[in-house]
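F.,

This is the one I mentioned.
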């Protein structure tokens, strides 16, 4: 009967397990599972190219797990959902809350409209361990600094909700509007540039589960020691799965919490869980400061003298700056849709400080090319790197990509993988080939300016210029 059925609106929660909206709806009776892709022009943060590739496959996977019952649409949810309810006679709608500013606004309007029509709307938290309104300072204001936010705010709360299983049975409505085919959403580009990316990832809930299991079995115990070394496969690489909600932070939290580890590995467990805390913090900042993706958190940065140089931006994007650690990172991004966290900080610092390009430029490039592009994490992290954010790295702390490379890629495995033209250089010169004697370059087959660029800026000079520009806005 249609009036006992529930429309379940899937958004960034493309999973069956630990999905409270789906779980509760399935208990009620038949469900109509729906996904709505916004029209590109409706949403300033329409998914970038790499995210669209991921979304295509994630929807494909979810559709199969729902036995082909997932209905796909594109357009304005404020119109499509009332229309679907009208066509099917359904009187209940369930969804998991989305804490991004535009989505929250839309959801509030939709909920109000539906409730006025006598439709029952029920929403759940399925994407954050603690809701942003739950964690506040004693004076009722939101935290601005990560450590007190996590230690005194989050960890003093009751433990996060324990994950739910998948619904024991899911009965879907047989008669419902067909919607669009996955192909009609046109998420995949005409030219298959994503082939290389596709080899590294398995979008969808089963892939997310496999990734979590292998991380906990093989890498959690050495996370703290390995996590800063981009040449090692030491982190979880769960970020795209988390972004699309193919698994919940609650599932990761409890799997990590209950993993059997030697006592000496407790710092590894703690450190990993604290990284989930950084994710919470970014989403919390976006909730309380919805301007975070556009505006400097610290307004003094509005006066900063940014440079406008499309050619140097292109060199950065294409990994031809002549600074090996930066180029390796940008090429990793292009080839895999991912970049190691340590290297994101290095390439970010180089763009914003050595090249003095606005952090919006880096944010936009990452938005288009990362498979884990996420409005909260990307915006908060770029502001952190730029020094303009809440609890940011101070502007004057400028990463030196050469010493960073020597410290975190000492044997050069990472740079050699992504900059093969430098592979034969001895470790000593790998991170600064311009310092190698001519004989060493020749023996290694490196011709600076020919098969590998000369550095596009002098690191020392550009650092001094950045500090001078910062001094001008300090007061
Ligand atoms: P792990 O080390 O295994 O960490 C586990 C999880 O914790 C991650 O999957 C992620 O969800 C979360 N996490 C870890 N570090 C951070 C962090 N610094 N901030 C917020 N959450 C974190 N992350 C994104 O998910 N999307 C982005 O668009 C994004 N853009 C970034 C841009 C810049 C300039 C920087 C410096 C960082 C950015 N990050 C972003 C954060 C971080 O780099 C990635 O989350 C991390 O590299 C993902 O790899 P992992 O899953 O192996 O992480």
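My design for it:
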């Amino acid at each position: 009967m249609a009036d006992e059925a529930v429309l379940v609106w899937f958004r960034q929660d493309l999973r069956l397990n630990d999905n409270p909206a789906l779980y509760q709806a399935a208990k009620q009776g038949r469900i109509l599972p729906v996904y709505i892709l916004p029209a590109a022009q409706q949403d300033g943060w329409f998914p970038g190219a790499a995210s669209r590739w991921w979304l295509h496959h994630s929807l494909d996977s979810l559709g199969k797990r729902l036995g082909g019952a997932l209905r796909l649409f594109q357009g304005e949810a404020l119109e499509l959902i009332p229309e679907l309810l009208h066509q099917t006679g359904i009187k209940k709608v369930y969804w998991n809350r989305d804490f991004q500013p535009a989505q929250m606004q839309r959801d509030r309007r939709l909920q109000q409209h539906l409730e006025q029509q006598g439709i029952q709307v029920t929403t759940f938290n399925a994407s954050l361990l603690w809701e942003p309104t739950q964690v506040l300072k004693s004076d009722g204001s939101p935290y601005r600094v990560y450590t007190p936010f996590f230690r005194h705010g989050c960890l003093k709360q009751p433990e996060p909700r324990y994950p739910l299983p998948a619904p024991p049975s899911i009965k879907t409505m047989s008669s419902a509007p067909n919607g669009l085919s996955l192909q009609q959403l046109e998420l995949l580009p005409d030219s298959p540039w994503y082939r290389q990316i596709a080899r590294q990832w398995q979008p969808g809930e089963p892939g997310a589960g496999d990734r979590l299991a292998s991380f906990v079995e093989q890498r959690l115990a050495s996370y703290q020691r390995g996590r800063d070394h981009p040449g090692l496969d030491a982190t979880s690489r769960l970020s795209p799965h988390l972004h699309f909600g193919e698994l919940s932070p609650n599932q990761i939290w409890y799997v990590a919490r209950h993993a059997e580890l030697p006592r000496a590995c407790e710092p590894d467990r703690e450190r990993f869980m604290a990284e989930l805390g950084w994710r919470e913090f970014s989403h919390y900042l976006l909730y309380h400061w919805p301007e975070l993706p556009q505006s400097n958190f610290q307004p003094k940065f509005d006066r900063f003298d940014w440079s406008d140089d499309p050619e140097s931006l292109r060199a950065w994007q294409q990994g031809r700056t002549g600074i090996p650690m930066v180029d390796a990172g940008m090429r990793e991004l292009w080839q895999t849709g991912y970049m190691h966290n340590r290297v994101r900080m290095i390439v970010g610092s180089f763009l914003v400080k050595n090249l003095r390009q606005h952090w919006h430029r880096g944010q936009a490039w990452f938005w288009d090319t990362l498979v884990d592009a996420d409005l909260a994490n990307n915006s908060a992290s770029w502001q952190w790197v730029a020094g303009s954010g809440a609890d940011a790295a101070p502007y004057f702390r400028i990463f030196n990509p050469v010493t960073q490379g020597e410290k975190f890629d000492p044997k050069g495995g990472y740079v050699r993988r992504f900059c093969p033209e430098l592979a034969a250089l001895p470790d000593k010169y790998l991170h600064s080939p311009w310092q190698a004697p001519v004989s060493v370059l020749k023996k290694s087959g490196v011709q600076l300016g020919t098969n590998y660029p000369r550095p596009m800026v002098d690191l020392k000079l550009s650092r001094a210029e950045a500090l001078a520009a910062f001094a001008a806005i300090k007061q």
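The pocket of flavin-adenine dinucleotide is lined by residues 227, 235-239, 242-243, 275-276, 278-279, 282, 341, 344-345, 348, 366, 370, 372-374, 377-378, 381-382, 385 (CB under 6 Å).

Talk soon.
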